[in-house]
Write a structure and sequence with these properties.
By secondary structure, the protein is mainly alpha-helical. 66% of the residues lie in helices and 0% in strands. It has helices spanning 7-10, 35-44, 46-81, 94-127. Helix 3 packs antiparallel against helix 4 (94-127). The two termini are 20 Å apart. Mean pLDDT is 81; it is low at 1-8.
Length: 128
């Protein structure tokens, strides 16, 4: 049974923004799909190239979120081991943990919206 509302309906009235405005200098170095692979697939099927670019972006964002969550997850160990008299690393504050967790949640929401908008675009092409 098909949902009567598209993903675009769920976020109607919002302004679509790319997850990031520009590529960073490391982005080309850590791509799952090579640029030449994407280009060949774009020539064969523009949608395949688009999906490969999106998957590269999602892979990079997920890798970054994993690092952030490992930092957050390691904070209780720092709290247990911290001795202010030693030169040990102090634990992150609850405010810092909250900021990092909210940042990861925001990135997850952005990925979800990006996938939803891509799905709507591709679904409209099939419908047309």
């Amino acid at each position: 049974m098909m949902n009567q509302f598209s993903n675009a309906d769920a976020i109607a009235g919002t302004t679509v923004q790319p997850l990031t405005q520009h590529k960073n200098s490391l982005e080309d170095n850590y791509m799952s799909f090579w640029e030449s692979t994407i280009q060949q697939n774009k020539e064969a099927s523009p949608n395949a190239g688009l999906l490969m670019e999106r998957l590269n972006r999602i892979q990079q964002l997920c890798a970054g979120m994993g690092v952030v969550m490992r930092i957050v997850g390691g904070n209780p160990v720092l709290e247990d081991c911290y001795n202010p008299e030693d030169a040990s690393e102090p634990p992150l504050s609850n405010t810092a943990i909250s900021a990092l967790t909210n940042m990861v949640a925001t990135v997850c929401e952005g990925i979800s919206e990006d996938i939803a908008l891509t799905a709507d675009k591709l679904n409209e092409q099939v419908r047309a």
